Amino acid sequence: MKMSSSVVAYSFRHIPPLKQRSIRYFSHQRPLRRPPLCSPCSVLVATSTSSCSLPNSASFTGNSLFRRMERYWAASSINKNKGMVEHLQRYGVIQSKKVAEVMETVDRALFVPDGSSAYEDSPMQIGFNATISAPHMHATCLQLLEKNLQPGMHALDVGSGTGYLTACFALMVGPQGHAIGVDHIPELVTMSIKNIEKSAAAPLLKDGSLALHVGDGREGWVEFAPYDAIHVGAAAPEIPQPLIDQLKPGGSETSVRYVPLTSREAQLRGY
């Protein structure tokens, strides 16, 4: 197949200020240096032009739908994982049967700090200056990447935190695929493994198709590259080159505020 010349494409979208901050996001389409493989791949990356300290209870997408959802959920006391998924379906965040099944199967309560409102549509602090994203953000990631999380595919979760999204990836790609989580905080990796051992994804952890590693996520995890999907749960001024190198051709994006993609030392110092 004759390839076109390599192209790097950037798109910018302005989001109204949140607490006096304006944020810009970009998507990066990888230059096609080799013939495309049988399916395109996707990377989900959000960046901010400002320093990205996390406000109290504060992840957002710039979409008024999610703001309405949050007000409704605050008044509705959802106390079941299935109820959380049904609300995400009702508001159109979850649109596919597969994503709904996976999020019903992986109980979010196993991945949040004890005493937390597990099904509230809000990010939560998990220690070490890290967070677990709001349910609608996880649903959005899974929905965007669904075509690249088919059985047998490979997925990488950078900044895997408590392990929730990595577990969801693992159920999507199944035992024939590989779902890899990387986090540079050893305590979080230990926590994520314990969380997954209590979840429906435990058999995949046992057979090795799901794995969590301590490492610098900016370097990716080359062992199972190239990946059909890479999710980066942190903000960066640009996509680290190793992640681009480990990604199959293609790309997709959405906008969200995340904590910075940084070194372990900087994170523990509070950036």
From TrEMBL:
It comes from the Eukaryota. Keywords: Methyltransferase, S-adenosyl-L-methionine, Transferase. GO terms for cellular component: cytoplasm. Its EC number is 2.1.1.77. It catalyses: [protein]-L-isoaspartate + S-adenosyl-L-methionine = [protein]-L-isoaspartate alpha-methyl ester + S-adenosyl-L-homocysteine. One of its GO terms (molecular function) is protein-L-isoaspartate (D-aspartate) O-methyltransferase activity. InterPro entries: PCMT, SAM-dependent_MTases_sf. One of its GO terms (biological process) is protein repair. PANTHER family: PROTEIN-L-ISOASPARTATE O-METHYLTRANSFERASE (PTHR11579), PROTEIN-L-ISOASPARTATE O-METHYLTRANSFERASE 1 (PTHR11579:SF28). Belongs to the methyltransferase superfamily. L-isoaspartyl/D-aspartyl protein methyltransferase family. This is Protein-L-isoaspartate O-methyltransferase. The lineage of its organism: Eukaryota, Viridiplantae, Streptophyta, Embryophyta, Tracheophyta.
